[in-house]
Each structure stands twice: as structure tokens, then as C-alpha cells.
Amino acid sequence: MQETDYIIVGFGLSGLAVTRQLQSHNKKVVVIDKPSQNASKVAGGMYNPVILKRFTLAWNANEQLPYALQFYKSIEDELKIKIINPLPVYRRFSSIKEQNNWFEASDKPLLNEYLNSDLKTTLNKNINSNYSFGEVKQTGTINTEKLINAFKSKLSSNTNFIEENFNYDSLQVNEDSIIYNNLTARGIIFCEGIGVKNNPYFNTLGIRGNKGEYLIIKAPQLNLEAAVKSGIFIIPLGDNNYKVGASYDRLDTTTNPTETKKIELKKQLDAILTTEYQIIDQVAGIRPTTKDRRPYIGSLNEHKNVYLCNGLGSRGVITSPTISKHLVDHILKDLPIPSDISLERHY
What we know:
This protein is about 25% helix and about 25% strand. The protein contains seven helices and 22 strands.
């Protein structure tokens, strides 16, 4: 038998963050994951503390954002990769009312450090607007695909990554140990995203899928050096390529891109872009969401060494470092999990 401290099932942002937290406490980890087009790899990767539909601060963003950037910087330094890309975000206003709402929000104590009250009348000659643009500060992108691939390579080089679909029938849960095939561990942590629907231990939680699709376009004349939000995001990728999206669909449970969403996104893009572009790719992923839009972390009542970290939704880039820390502090230090994210609220 191969001994380890913890088995991690799933390796999107959630699984990576939990793995990183455990390793920071010198715990041995084995990750089991089947490579796939998961939500983390196809995500926009934006870190943005403000909900731009309503001009409100995202849940705990003022605490989570600084910790997340510190978390990703430590990975950059250790793996010698560049994944943090500071990038301005501009909200394109569609009415005077929206502009006035922006000014009102920028005066609020928790928002004034993120919302610039000096508006831009024009941002880019290829983006039309009858109104102004508002800048969100302390924003950027995390290259989630590069992050996951680089961390996976590190684990694989130490034989700590097993590429296979997890077989629940092979899992044996004892009071003080976990056995899976030839592995024995203290505990197991499921970080499967929407794959939790197939997990017999947690498939009654009601974690739902929210499918998101993006277009990748090439626009040689756009020359946009900031992300723009106007219903959809336009996010620069470099080399005249941009990510456009995302769509939202709670009914479609497939992971394949659809022609319907392609048309929908193109229509939204055509309404604001005045330069020619070419669609070069389309990607899709399923975000795991919960009814109250808060993650689920914790252990089973009947099996205290079987844990869950799931339901990060569309803001996993910002939330996963803090959420994973709460879970690992609970596991290793017996610290209480905040009630609004605890699995206990389900029972």
C-alpha cells in the first residue's frame, strides 16, 4: 500500500487550492483526476471585486482578493511561471441612470477603493457608446489553464497525480483511515465541481450546473488593452485575440459548445464592436453553483474523514484560496468553518 495523508479528487481551482494549502502544512497529497475540459480551464479567469450588473461588492471580496493575489504570487515564485496579469476593467454604461448609479456606488465606503469616479468619455475607437466608461480598480486575470497545467506537472513529477476517473466502488471508508485501491490515507477531499452529481456521498446536496460559453475572436484592429464589461466581457488574451462571454444556462447539462450561444454572444458583441473580427474558437464549461450562491465545505456527519470543497460558482478565482484555507484549517486545526459556507447548513 502507498501511504499518503490526503487524497484529493478533482483538480480544478478548488482541488488545486486545497492541495496547495495541505502542502503548505507539509502534508502528503495524492490527486486523482481525469483530464477534461473543466470549468476552471475554460473560465474567463477574471479577478474583479465588484458585481458590475448592480455595482455592489462581491461576497467578502475585500478580504478574499488580497489573499488570493498573495496565494497566486506564491505559486508564481515557486513554479517560476507568470499567471497574474493586472488588467483594467471598464464598465460600458448604457444610460445616464447607470452612470448616476456608478457615482452613487463609488461614494460608498467599501466600494470607493475599487470604483473610479473619474469616467472616460471614450475608451477605444472600435467600441461604440453613447455614454461613458467607468473603471474598476485592482482587477486582472489569472491564467487558470497555465496555472493548473504547471501545478499538475509538478505533482506528476513526484508521482502524486493519478490520471483516471475516480471509482467510488473502490473507496473504503474506515473510522480512522481511507483506502482506495493501493492507497491509504487519513482522509479524502472531493473537489469535483459539477462531477459531484455522480458522487454517492454528496449527490443529494442540490449543487447545480450553470453552463458558460465563451467565444475566442481575433480582431487585428481592435487594439484593446483593458477588459470591457457590457452585458458580456471582452478580455484581451494577446496577439490580437480576445475572449468574449460568458453565457449562462442552467438547463443545458452538456459540455459541448452550442450554435445557439454562439449566435447570442455574437449578437451582443456586434452591438458594441465596430471593427471586423473572426471567431476562431468556442469553449464551454459547467460551473458548480448552490442555491444560496455560497460554497459547500466540510465533512459528512457519518464519515468525518470524507470532505467536500465545492460550489465555487463563477468567482472561483477569487474565492478558492480563502475557501480552501478555511477547510484545511478545519481539518488540521479543528477550527470552525464559517456558517455561511459550512456543509452543516445543508443538514
